[in-house]
Amino acid sequence: MLNINFVPDDYIASSESRRTNLMYLVLLAVVMTALGGSFVTIKIRQRAFHDKEELINAKIARVQEAIKQFEQLQAKRKEMMKAALTTAQLLEPVPRSVLLASLTNNLPTGVSLLRLYLEQKEPKQVSPPPAPTNKYQAAQSNKASTAEDTSREQQLETHIEIGGMAPSDLQVAAYIERLSSSNLLQNVALVESKEFKIDDTTFRRFKLTAMLRNNVNLTKEDVDQIRARHEGLSRTF
């Protein structure tokens, strides 16, 4: 039996064309949706990378600032050492250059000097002698007073203030122990030790006081040894 198609060919062709166009539109919508999703994902990732970049730049800036502060501390330390060495020969019998070298030689690892202050003071006055009752005692009193005025400069006490920074109180205690065992200093004491931070690193800023020992006698070999060790340490900075 023959199948007779009464549908015109133009209608069939038009229907197939509409189905084809509809399929193309659906595919186009799918592609555009995929492109839109990819674009949004890329933008989100770009924003995340941008935020990370800003965070890294901020950390780098803080590190650079910390390095700058450290360099300023080192420069200040060198200036302090230079100023101290300029007046090195004012202190006798121990030159100030030798005293500074000794303080530097005894520094534990990680400890730095920031401030050094020397002050000469007269010793505490003792009770005055009784008034002379005759000419002989008056003459002896005048003679003793003249001798005391002559040697007053040699009897001055040298008080020392030391300021610096250390990683922890352990290094500060080790520095105090080393200075206490030195043959140049006595009465080494801790005045204060405060915590401060550079970036995220914690340090201790400390202040010490000490006195130069009386009647210190250093041989030329001792002085040369102290200065040689100090020059060796200075070259490492």
Number of strands: 4
Q: Characterize the largest beta sheet: strand count, sense, and whether it forms a barrel.
A: 4 strands, antiparallel
Q: What is the count of helical runs?
A: 5
Judged by helices, strands and strand pairing, the structural class is alpha+beta
**Terminus-to-terminus distance:** 110 Å
Rg, rounded, reads: 42 Å
Low-confidence spans: 149-154
Order of helices and strands: HHEHEHEEH
What does the model show?
This protein is an alpha+beta fold. The protein contains 5 helices and 4 strands. A 4-stranded antiparallel sheet has the order 1-2-4-3. A hairpin with a 2-residue loop joins strand 3 (185-198) and strand 4. Helix 2 crosses helix 5. The protein is rod-shaped, with a radius of gyration of 42 Å. The termini are far apart. Residues 149-154 have low confidence and may be disordered.
Keywords, please?
237 residues; alpha+beta
Task: Write a short abstract of this structure.
The chain is an alpha+beta fold and 237 residues long. It has helices at residues 9-86, 96-105, 135-150, 169-180, 220-236; strands spanning 112-121, 157-166, 185-198, 201-212.
Task: Please describe the topology of this protein.
Blueprint (H helix, E strand, L loop, with lengths): L8 H78 L9 H10 L6 E10 L13 H16 L6 E10 L2 H12 L4 E14 L2 E12 L7 H17 L1
Antiparallel strand pairs: 1-2, 2-4, 3-4
Helix pairs in contact: 2-5
